[in-house]
Amino acid sequence: MGAACDAVALMPAPPVTVPRATLAADASCRVGYDLAPARGAIEINNLSIIFGQPGKEFLAIDRVSFAIKPGEFICIVGPSGCGKSTILNMVAGFERPTEGSVTLDGVAITKPGADRGMVFQQPSLFPWKTVRANVAYGPRMAGLLDRDAYCLADQYLEMVGLAQFAGNYPKTLSGGMQQRVAIARALVNRPSVLLMDEPFGALDAQTRAMMQETLLRIWADNKTTVIFVTHDIDEAIFPGDRILVMSASPGRVVLDIPVTLRRPRSTDISLDRLFLSIKKRCLEIIRREILSAFERQAQASESNHS
Question: Residue 40: is its pLDDT beyond 50?
C-alpha cells in the first residue's frame, strides 16, 4: 500500500483517530489481497422450513435442493414472498431448517459465523465510526492488531474505490458509496461466502449499474462464493454463473439456468441474444408462478365463503 497506508487522503470529515503507527505500510497486511483457498462449497439438501405456531403453520420453503461450487456467483430470483431471503438466512445461520440440511464445506450450518459475510439492502454501518473504522471493525473483533486491521481496511477501501473517503462518516456518503463500504466490510473478513440480499434495490438506476460492475470486478479478483438475491432479472443475469428461479410460496427451485455469457462482462452484454433469451425464460416462469398463486388464492377464498 505504501503511501496509501502512510497518508490517507481525507475529505472534509474529521480525521481518523488512530495512532499514526497503525498507518505504517506492512507486508503482512497484504493478506487482504491474497486469493482465498478453494472453499465456499454449499450444499442444500431437501430443505423445508415451516414458520408459525402449531395450528397456524406456514410452509415457507418446500424440499429445496441445490449445490454451489466454490467461487460460483449464484443469483436467486422469484415472485415476492417465495422464500429467497429465507434461503439466504439459512445459509447465514439466522434460521434453522425444519427438515433437510445446509452445509458449508461439508460442515452443517447451525449459527452465524465469520466464514459468511452478509450485505443487506440498507448498508447498516456504524454511524459513529469513520468509513475506515467501520471496515476495520471485523478484523479487530477477530483479534487482529489495530495496525493490521486498519491496513487491511485501507486495502479493501482501495479495492472498492473509496480510499480517499476513509476518514468520512457514513452520513456524508451517497447510498452507493455506503453500499461499497458495506461490501468492503463484509469482504475484509475473507469469508468463504458472500450473501447479498437485494443490496442495490434502494439505489437509482445509474448507481445500480455502476455498483453491479464494481461487484463483478471485485468478485473476479477474489472469487468468493456469492449468493445474490434480487427481484431484477437483468441484475441476476449480468453477474451470475447460474440463476435459480423459485416458485411462488411455498418456495421451490423450479429452474436452474446456467449463464454462459462471456467474461469479463460489461453493461452492453444486456443486448446479447443469449442474455435476452435467458431474461425471457425467467420472466415467463415467474409470470406463470404468480398467476398460479393468484388462482390458488382465489380458490381458497371461494372455499372459505362457500
Answer: yes
